[in-house]
């Protein structure tokens, strides 16, 4: 077998791993690069193989940095199956068209402002390309075995977000395991990652390979911020990712009220995508910790805003309430309208529920900016801005080592990917010293023979 690292090597986005075995060529994950321009430009580089030559794609989960290149792959000639779990398939049908629409909007914006070197600027792919992926999506349940050319595939639960999996690929020469993105052992919503079968080679994520998450209770932390905001007569705004984070926040709010840690106030989810994703969490309740009944109770905590009119009317409200809205780093979406309305009032709070990438409005707010730019105008920041780093959907260093301990004892080599260089290297050292395994951090485009 041969393994080539086409993405998420030395960085956290762009996950793409090419596996070649006699008679089989499979791409594991098919993500786009996100973040700084130098990385995003890689999305435009041709892949070192013909898309039509692939037998199949295997997707660990629906996040765009693992799936967002699929529409381009299909447009450019890939005709095989995309194997993923049933919830991942449903999430992709929400996330991919939205991603295509955003690429089209970016290109249109560049053309209006004439800041692209290319005239006209083209989208990486279109919404229509994203919809063309659907017929090729093939749902594979956890534990099921699927033959792909000369390989055998099996998905194992990875926690993280709804439907997320680790992927085991078995060939005549041995077993290759991809961790995918791993969740946490004490996630309020998702089960901890399951132990896969022992593998010969393991590709391990390292997003938080150098960190340990705080042990604080996220419910108490959210409740505390909500309580003081309500006491001031203010509104609490939670910019949030639509998948995973939004549902965790609803759980925290529900628990805050149930345990009487904060006064009960109306909660609104104002993000069409978060609304659709929440429905999937309800439909696939066997894929997470909440039962069908608990799901109903938790998600009933919120009213789901539908029309743009309803969304606008929310900004006229003056009494204490909570708004959960996307995007999570305030780079776009309906949350921008709420920020513009709520930031100038010192009674309100904007709670950033996670990591904010450099260059985003979220990062500016977290850094204490006195004003931020929205829709061409400057908005003064007088509201309280707080940050909460307790709702990460990613395993920390302890969790990663624990997972590797469950399946890595006989591994011939571990490849550490999906991390910034410092995080990957810190994990590499712990894997070598604590578990005594052969381990490397592969370079971008590096290929290794597994034998
Ligand atoms: Zn992910």
Keywords:
about 450 residues, alpha/beta, binds zinc ion, seven-stranded mixed sheet, globular, about 30% helix, single chain, Metallo-beta-lactamase, Chain A, 2 domains, Rossmann fold
Overall description:
By secondary structure, the chain is of the alpha/beta class. It has 2 domains: 2-211 and 393-449, Metallo-beta-lactamase, Chain A (4-Layer Sandwich), CATH 3.60.15.10; 218-387, Rossmann fold. The chain has 14 helices and 22 strands. The chain has helices at 37-40, 64-67, 70-75, 86-113, 127-131, 218-231, 245-258, 272-283, 292-299, 308-314, 335-342, 361-366, 397-407, 421-435; strands spanning 2-5, 16-21, 24-30, 56-58, 81-84, 137-139, 145-148, 151-157, 165-171, 174-178, 201-205, 236-239, 267-270, 302-304, 322-325, 349-352, 371-374, 377-380, 384-387, 413-417, 439-440, 447-449. It has a 7-stranded mixed β-sheet. Strand 8 and strand 9 (165-171) form a beta hairpin. The longest helix is centred in the N-terminal third of the chain and has 28 residues, at 86-113. The radius of gyration is 22 Å and the shape is globular. The model has no long low-confidence stretch (mean pLDDT 95). The chain binds zinc ion. Zinc ion (ZN) binds at residues 61, 63, 160, 181. Zinc ion (ZN) is lined by residues 61, 63, 160, 181.
Backbone structural class: alpha/beta
Beta content comes to: 15-25%
- Helical stretch tally: 14
What is the CA-CA span between the terminal residues?
7 Å
Task: List how many beta strands DSSP finds.
Answer: 22
Mean pLDDT across every amino acid position: 95
- CATH class wording of the largest domain: Alpha Beta
List segments where confidence is low: pLDDT < 50 over at least 5 consecutive residues: none
CATH architecture of the largest domain: 4-Layer Sandwich
Strand ordering within the main sheet: 6-5-4-3-2-1-22
Compute the number of structural domains: 2
Please tell me what the overall shape is. globular
